[in-house]
Specification:
Largest sheet: none
Strand content: under 5%
Structural class: mainly alpha
Helix content: 55-70%
Shape: globular
Radius of gyration: 24 Å
Number of strands: 0
Number of domains: 2
Amino acid sequence: MLIASFQFAVFTLAVLAVYHKLPEKYQNVFLLIVSGAMIALFSLEFALVFAVLTFANYWLSQRAERGMERAGLALWAGIAINITALVYFKYADFYIPYFVYYLKRAGITLEATTLIFVLPVGLSFFIVQAIAYLLDINRGVATPTKNWVSFALFMVYFPKLVSGPIERSRTLLAQLEKPRQTRKTVVGKGVVLILTGLVRKLVIADLLSSLIPDDLFSSPGSYNAAHLGLWLLVYAIVIYNDFAGYTAIVRGVSVWFGIELSANFNTPYFARNFSEFWQRWHITLSDWLRDYIFMPLTRRFLRMRLPRNHPVTAFLPPLATMGVSALWHSAAPGMLVWGLLHGLYQIIERSLSLLRPGRPLDRQPIWLQSVSRLVVFILVVLAWVPFRMDLTTALVYWRTLFNLADWGDLPALGALPGMAFWIILVVLLVNLILDILEARKGKMVYLKLPVLVRAILINCAVYAILAAYFLKLEAAPPFIYQGF
């Protein structure tokens, strides 16, 4: 069941109708049953996997608390179980061929297809959330809950199941263990988030995605540099709005249950440096990487008496952090290059700041901030190439893109099939207006507008969403991050 679908809307409204009729003590139980049913709709095997992992993490969390006997053993057992499950399901395509090869050498014949496992939807997000919970308990940052229902719901809460956000116990679990009431004032907030999310997903991301040529990411050599540049820009806007749209929708739905989920995006393409970009893009994963990879590595090197400006202390943590981020997404060579590129960006940025410390970003001249935004945006967009395609194809894409002679063919962009070029311009303008409004006034800016203006905008959004939904001959594509 896709989040941006009519079926999900009906499903959610039915759940809400029952949820708000139930006594508070039964609400978590009901949401847990609904979440389990949603997993089972994907696959009964998926439901079993999540049930086993949820029970294992709950049991180990009770024994991982700082000061308890063998707390460290429980912590590392939990980390090992979670990582093993992730590797077992997520990276089967990578290790199964080698496994089958060595079995054949030992005289055992087995088809690789019989060993390839389907990755349970949302497992990657589940795993990093579980690891964070165990680590926070062991560090004394969090206290393990004794309420099994609250913990299980914390792990598999259905709106965030597919693609996050990655929640901490201090944010989501703390809410689940308190009585919740949906005030009238948050109903409007939910409407704004859901409509904004649907516009980003259906009107911007899906519409632009439908215009991208089918063979662009498999045969980029068939296009000139100007076209590759345009389509790469389009893809950058697609992936941002696709994921930001998902987060906005599930946050809006959760608000109606009286639950606040974490924001995952904050106009990341307006970032003025790469550190700021990762504070704005996939925020909950970035925070996880900072707290459990970057900071521990940095502290370890400082304890080794290496100064902060030492190359190892300054450069290895960001490189390792982005390497882990790449592996979390996929073990494909192209994805690793994407991660290493972002690690390299941060190393260069740190090197420049060590050589010549500058003023804080907000105190820099406006023109310099604008130039910085443009440079960061261009480099981020270029890094999407290996993120989207295999490494060999990515190299062809870059080589063709950087053929400066081809950029003289810019007028040919206006000759794209049908009204594609003008549709792209209009949709990009809509995206830019949304981002500027959110950057300057916040995501709830629409609630501060006059009633007439709000009514007009809501009607425009609804008509645009309905047109995008019903005019498509095929179903809306799944969210990009659902594949991770």
